[in-house]
Amino acid sequence: MNVAGIPYRTIWLDQEDAGVVKIIDQRYLPHRFIVESLSTPDQMARAITDMHVRGAGLIGAAAGFGMYLASLTADRSSLDSFMVDMARSAEMLIATRPTAVNLSWAVQRILDGISASGASVEDKIAICLDSAHAIADEDADFCRRIGRHGAEIITGISNSKAGATVNILTHCNAGWLAFVDYGTATSPIYTAFGQGIDVHVWVDETRPRNQGASLTAWELQQQGIPYTVIVDNAGGHLMQHGMVDLVITGSDRTTFTGDVANKIGTYLKALAARDNGIPFYVALPSSTFDWTVRDGVRDIPIEQRDGEEVRYIEGLAEDRLTSVLITPQNSPVANYAFDVTPARLVTGLITERGICPASEEGTLSLFPEHRGTV
Ligand code: MRU
Description:
Layout: E1 2-3, E2 6-7, E3 11-13, E4 21-24, E5 35-38, H1 41-49, H2 56-73, H3 79-94, H4 102-116, H5 121-160, E6 166-170, H6 187-194, E7 199-204, H7 211-223, E8 227-230, H8 235-240, E9 246-249, E10 253-255, E11 260-263, H9 266-275, E12 280-283, E13 289-290, H10 296-299, H11 308-311, E14 312-317, E15 320-325, E16 338-341, E17 348-351, E18 354-356, H12 360-366
Parallel strand pairs: 6-7, 6-9, 7-8, 9-12, 10-13, 12-17
Antiparallel strand pairs: 1-2, 3-4, 4-5, 10-11, 11-16, 14-15, 17-18
Helix pairs in contact: 1-2, 2-3, 2-4, 2-5, 3-4, 4-5, 5-6
5-S-methyl-1-O-phosphono-5-thio-D-ribulose (MRU) binds next to α2 and β11.
């Protein structure tokens, strides 16, 4: 997507130094646009844990490039010692964040690649780099396709309203900043807007890290799309008063049965949408499906993050990024980062292959290669 007219992805290999991976450090958005250089797998792991990069697709791509950086620093004295080092880096990267499945999927894809082929260390390094690029390119391509499929839903609603504004509510940031490009929940919005459909987006602020208020709002502003930031608890009220036509969120992990793990608070939006007869769609690339988990509520691991994220709120004061305490000093807090929306509340899943019902039959109809393995 463009930032001040310049096209950017969220992660890329430095053109001048193939030992350096560049990322947009999202901790500073929307106030500063800072590009960070990473040259070791440890730096990449830290960037994922501390959320310089975040969002399911992007942390998958980041883990891919992290494995490439690991291959550059791994022991080259023998193939065996190289593979031992790679396995150690894989473990470190996978441990950074537990809920989004894209991360372990990307790491495993690279491990499988270098286990199956590469006669020399140099060959295996080349496989790591090709795979990291392939993961990033695929992510961008899949998100672009999600945009085309999802835009049909928005167009349908626009037609049914005789071209009046389509009001879409989204939670957290499932935009291009959460992926390599385009995003998932935002991609249909970008496509529909590009086709001349009149859209307006309600952006949940998404406490505690405010990815909606700081990232989604910034993205939409960059693209010139009308939006309004709302507090997390406003969605139900807006839905009751006919001010929301459609909800689209992203996902960090979706079971093959259609249960959706996404940013904390998504479940409550789905409940309110169901109560008000509003379609609730989830947009995701195939790398976000977990084909091993049937019951998402029971079996998807939910990340719990540092309580300081709840006790403090961060913002710009007198041109400086500042944290402000909003609870009593040392207040006990709980910081569950994700929740699971059961499939029964999801109207449909928007994927790169099309839209399907949130059910085992639905996901297998689009991804028949998983029949017999789930
Ligand atoms: O904790 P984050 O910012 O990495 O959470 C990811 C999200 O933004 C998701 O909730 C999003 O909707 C799907 S992941 C692209």
